[in-house]
């Protein structure tokens, strides 16, 4: 680049134009061009079988089998970080790859999040209740949220908030000066195929998963808090829930940049549990059994990957990585009989952290491996120091990169991480 500049200056000097137009001759960052997202999206048979976690740095266009040519090692190359046209810089990640991941996750799993710019949100606040009404396309859905403020919260000293579904351990959060707000997720979207609740009152007929509907509930609750509760600071916001509701909390963190810290608890598959390496602990929750047991959590497209989960061009670590550089703290209990705590801790978490590290945000992702079982309330106090660090900058000596009894990452699950693109 320097050579080009010198040449250009020489040329302009020779042409007698001196340096009259410095803007035109100064070295410029080459404009970043994003590879187009394949349209239509590739089906499972057009994607390579990847037994280890997909390379988050490889754009979808270069992941498809069309790129294999006569290579017999295409899938292996892709898995090991030798795919062509990987993202090279954080700028490229934020401009191209992160938005692409958000798109492909909606296409393959979540269904398309409704266009918020077409919504009108109204809210009223009385006592501990915030009533929320959302209108779009002439239809209205209503639900309410319940508020607990810590002592000392005031409009001149607004406090951060954790919004939860399904309840949480409130007391330590309130003592720490954090408001706790809950809403009845079933009144936003029933945990069934019934398509009832405020979300479906507005969006019935769309191929959207219930996890996305719950995410929308978190976001509209935040809108309502911002409009009617001046004691809450809407720029410091956590979202949480456990098990299926942890999957919903992860979606809430993914789809709204206003969420400061995402706190999925014992979340399992479609949360922070990987589709691959699903049997390391727990009852072996998989794409197949989650789709047959609660197919409504995701859109219908995900069903086309049943028995082909290893052709998915993403996994739990990709979802987590797309949240960067915003904070993410992941809870799992070693005694969890249901979800794959070990797979989350030694596979999904460290793979996502490789991306956070590369983006210079390594301290924004944490893993909390605790004792106890599925949705044990102690998980909330275990992660609290991380949340306090995010909200208040409070120092903590607790190491949120400690995998506890699971010890160390399974690096063979994400070989591409040893070949991360040089950020220069
Ligand atoms: C709160 O509402 C104001 C006014 O509509 C808006 O400008 C701001 O972005 C909102 N903040 C959040 C965090 O939603």
UniProtKB/TrEMBL annotation:
All residue ranges annotated as the 4-O-methyl-glucuronoyl methylesterase-like domain in the record: 132-360
Signal peptide segment: 1-20
Family: Belongs to the carbohydrate esterase 15 (CE15) family.
Catalytic activity: a 4-O-methyl-alpha-D-glucuronosyl ester derivative + H2O = 4-O-methyl-alpha-D-glucuronate derivative + an alcohol + H(+)
Listed GO MF terms: carboxylic ester hydrolase activity
Alphabetical keyword list: Hydrolase, Lignin degradation, Serine esterase, Signal
Official protein name in the record: (4-O-methyl)-D-glucuronate--lignin esterase
Pfam families per record: GCE_fung (PF22244)
GO biological process: lignin catabolic process
Organism field: Apodospora peruviana
The keyword Signal is annotated on this UniProt entry: yes
UniProt-listed Enzyme Commission number(s): 3.1.1.117
Keyword Disulfide bond in annotation: no
């Amino acid at each position: 680049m320097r050579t080009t500049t010198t040449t250009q200056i020489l040329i302009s000097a020779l042409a007698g134009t001196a340096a009259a137009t410095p803007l035109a001759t100064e070295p410029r960052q080459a404009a970043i061009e994003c590879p187009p997202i394949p349209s239509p999206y590739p089906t499972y048979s057009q994607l390579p079988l990847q037994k280890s976690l997909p390379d988050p740095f490889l754009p979808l266009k270069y992941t498809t089998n069309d790129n294999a040519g006569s290579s017999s090692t295409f899938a292996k190359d892709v898995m090991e970080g030798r795919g062509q046209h990987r993202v090279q810089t954080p700028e490229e990640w934020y401009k191209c790859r992160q938005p692409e991941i958000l798109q492909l996750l909606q296409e393959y799993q979540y269904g398309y999040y409704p266009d918020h710019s077409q919504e009108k949100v109204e809210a009223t606040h009385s006592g501990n209740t915030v009533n929320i009404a959302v209108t779009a396309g002439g239809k209205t859905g209503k639900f309410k949220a319940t508020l607990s403020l810590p002592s000392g919260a005031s409009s001149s000293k607004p406090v951060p908030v954790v919004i939860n579904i399904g309840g949480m351990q409130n007391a330590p959060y309130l003592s720490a000066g954090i408001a706790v707000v809950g809403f009845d997720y079933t009144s936003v979207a029933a945990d069934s195929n019934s398509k009832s609740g405020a979300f479906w009152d507005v969006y019935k007929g769309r191929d959207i998963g219930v996890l996305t509907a719950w995410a929308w509930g978190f976001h509209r609750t935040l809108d309502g808090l911002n409009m009617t509760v001046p004691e809450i600071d809407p720029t410091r916001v956590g979202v949480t829930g456990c098990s299926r509701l942890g999957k919903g909390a992860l979606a809430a963190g993914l789809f709204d940049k206003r969420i400061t810290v995402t706190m999925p608890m014992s979340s399992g598959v479609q949360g922070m549990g990987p589709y691959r390496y699903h049997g390391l602990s727990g009852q072996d929750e998989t794409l197949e059994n989650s789709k047959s047991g609660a197919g409504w959590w995701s859109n219908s497209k995900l069903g086309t990957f049943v028995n082909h989960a290893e052709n998915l061009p993403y996994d739990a670590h990709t979802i987590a990585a797309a949240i960067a550089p915003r904070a993410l703290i992941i809870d799992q209990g070693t005694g969890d009989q249901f979800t794959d705590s070990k797979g989350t801790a030694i596979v999904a978490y460290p793979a996502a952290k490789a991306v956070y590290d590369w983006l210079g945000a390594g301290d924004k992702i944490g893993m909390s491996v605790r004792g106890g079982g599925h949705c044990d309330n102690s998980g909330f106090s275990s992660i609290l120091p991380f949340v306090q660090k995010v909200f208040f900058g409070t120092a903590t000596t607790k190491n949120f990169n400690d995998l506890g009894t699971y010890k160390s990452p399974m690096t063979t699950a994400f070989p591409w991480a040893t070949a991360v693109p040089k950020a220069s």
